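2024-03-11 09:14:02 INFO receiving multi-entity request
2024-03-11 09:14:02 INFO entity count = two
2024-03-11 09:14:03 INFO echoing inputs for audit
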Amino acid sequence: DVVMTQSPLSLPVTLGQPASISCRSSQSLVHSDGNTYLNWFQQRPGQSPRRLIYKVSNRDSGVPDRFSGSGSGTDFTLKISRVEAEDVGVYYCMQATHWPRTFGQGTKVEIK
Amino acid sequence: EVQLVESGGGLVQPGGSLRLSCAASGFMFSDYYMDWVRQAPGKGLEWVGRSRNKAYSYTPEYAASVKGRFTISRDDSTNSLYLQMNSLKTDDTAVYYCARDNTGTYDYWGQGTLVTVSS
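2024-03-11 09:21:47 INFO inference complete, emitting structure
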């Protein structure tokens, strides 16, 4: 199975400051169809996961533009340009290029 | 509006069985693959299994950790997805989510249902 490794696992951030989460895969996530199926999900406390980003950098409708995804191959990043209180939660990357789908361990974002 | 609502969770003894349901609405259920994903208390997300759609003969797939014990089925006439869990172990304790697959992503998740396996 493809191993997804996130860092850091805990990310204390000051309100209004940027935050960055790394996700590395044990194999390239470029699919034979040319797409890279790397997703980012946000899980706020007590809630179910919510998709933020799909195919590396496509933001879901309703997701604030302070969230952005980038990367290629095996190395991906989720950035929050200015952290707000509502961004507290755990963020997961997930690959869907290889079978079975696998998730990163999660990165807990909290306010300092 | 797309909605996924899980039910059927509860407390069960090791070795017991439980059947989870996921009621879908707001989209053409029969067109989509549907997955089960679980989350043990305080832990991360783990893919459990998949139900393909009619076009792919509803062929299921299972994680190695549940293969032979769990069975996924669906009823397109009632827009329902099921997870039959047998021979439950304490390690199966988790919140179970159903999620809609949409070409390499999960675009909708249910609220989850908690399964506790304990004596």
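2024-03-11 09:21:48 INFO post-check: Chain A has no helices and eleven strands.
2024-03-11 09:21:48 INFO post-check: The first strand of chain A starts at residue 4 and ends at 7.
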